[in-house]
Amino acid sequence: MPYSQILSRAFEITRRQPALWVFGFLVALFGGAGRGGGPSYNFNGFNGGRVPRFQGPPGFNLNLSTMLGLIAIVIGLLLVLAIIAAIVRYVAEVALIDGAARADDDEPVTVAGGLRRGWSRDAFFLFLTRLLLALPLIVVAIGIGVLVAGILAGGIGAAAATDRGVFAVLGIGLFLLVLLPTIALLILLAVVLALLGQWAAREVVLSQAGPIEAIGAAWGLARTYLKETILFGLLMWAISLGFGLLMTPLLLVAGALIIGPAFLAYQSANSLVAALVVAAPLALLALIGFAIIAGLFVAFSSTAWTLAWRHLRGISSASADLSEPIPDAGDSPVLATG
Hints:
Helix content: over 70%
Number of helices: 9
Structural class: mainly alpha
Distance between the termini: 35 Å
Order of helices and strands: HHEEHHHHHHH
Largest sheet: 2 strands, antiparallel
């Protein structure tokens, strides 16, 4: 596999295709969606068997049933937002993979065309493929949790039943003896599934395969080109690590720029609300800014994986001279509707 040529062409395609920047931004922004938390409340103890009331500001009265209703509404809104984020993420990922392949074939790439391509069954199939690949990790993680709980419970019980805790020591030793290899196995499984996921995603989008068929094809491709798959995965991991290290100082600076003004607002107004009012817009700007930067890297990384997949499938032009023209933004308007 011509690794350097693939990376060089991926960089050129990413640099010259602003539409891929948009798709990468959407994947970066919504790829981590689903995290969130509801408001927390403090309750007084029960008094005479009566239902406790939420103690808010003076003149503010909110009973438990109303509060539970509000919590249900918040949870429902968060669930809706998570679903919307997942839809946007997978539509954008399909558009990103398809756009990289089109650019490699010297075809125009537009945002409108990419979104039309992404709004298809491939986005749903890609979601199902990721879900199926995650199931083994979930099962193994649950197994590890049960194993850890069992060993800890046995160790605690043995420690309580013996004066010197001999069985507790043996339990801890057994715990480490079993847990460490299991964690190593879990990490190895996660790496294998991540590599399969890269090939499977291209099988879904570019070969129009269903989830099961895509995973099977990805397994066959990885098994046939095992060395190339491992080496390219290590190469992309090293590049991702380097990008993460470069982003770390920016994250620290952004954190200081958010926490500093928020702390000053809190000190001057002696109000947590004032601190949140100052911190919220700054945090939003930082989130968008980092999503833009991360989106460029996501676009490059996805393009590189797409070119590598096409090369292994024998349809890649990555080995061509890099002076070969790549359709530029001037030749294909990013916001074209056709």
